[in-house]
TrEMBL record:
Class in the EC hierarchy, top level: transferase
Protein name as annotated: glutathione transferase
Family classification: Belongs to the GST superfamily. Sigma family.
One Pfam family of this chain: GST_C_3
Biological process terms in GO annotation: glutathione metabolic process
Amino acid sequence: MTVPKYRLTYFNWMWIAEPTRFLLSYVGEDFEDVRLSYEEWMKDDPKINKNDFPYGKLPVLEDRENNLKLGQSFAIARYLARKYNLVGNTIVDAAKCDEYADVLKDMLSEVEPMWRADEKQKAEIKAAFLEKTVPRYFSVIETDLKNNGGKYLVGKTTTWVDFLCAHFTEMFQIYLNTDILTNYPALKAHQHQVFEISAIKEWKDKRPVTPY
Ligand SMILES: N[C@@H](CCC(=O)N[C@@H](CS)C(=O)NCC(=O)O)C(=O)O
């Protein structure tokens, strides 16, 4: 049996590792999808050696081909995107990909505090996210997407931000239990199209079922 080129270690969640799983599925690369127990990790269970992972955080990608161990989920996705030519055709395309990726990262950083918040704080974070954050960012991306024809966020080919955007819009919907795309039909249609790509659909159908 051949050892896959890639080993991706994360917890048993989609969250910030899923765009990389989409990417590897899309380019047809087999990968070891290692899912550590968050409970064991937090208890410093001796089974897990946190020193194996840069910064003691997950996800971490190992690329055996390039003898690389890489931390930081967005750096991982961007690295694979560059390796497989999923950053558009020009430096302007690549820059637009980075811009949208950073938008999604900013949005993520606004919902993440819900993880440790009490019920009152959760409601406040959710309200601010829906009333301010979503319109601030999605109104721009919705217009850009429409102007670009609706199929791709950047240029005329699939890029890594198509995966990021489809995934995180779904994550926000699940996490906030709200259809955040109601007012953004182009983004909704784009998400649907990404999920209909056969490799992505196949991955989504076979991936472990997790709450987020
Ligand atoms: N900015 C980092 C965040 C990494 C991060 O905080 N990962 C969390 C899981 S989502 C983690 O490893 N938590 C365990 C810990 O901090 O000990 C990334 O995007 O990869």
